[in-house]
Amino acid sequence: MSEAQAVTDESTAASDLTAFQQNILTILAEEPMYGLAIKRELEAYYGSEVNHGRLYPNLDDLVDHGLVEKSELDKRTNQYELTDEGHDIVLGQIEWVLDRFVADETRADEVRALLE
Question: Which of 12, 74, 99, 111 is most buried per CB count within 10 Å?
Answer without folding.
Answer: 12
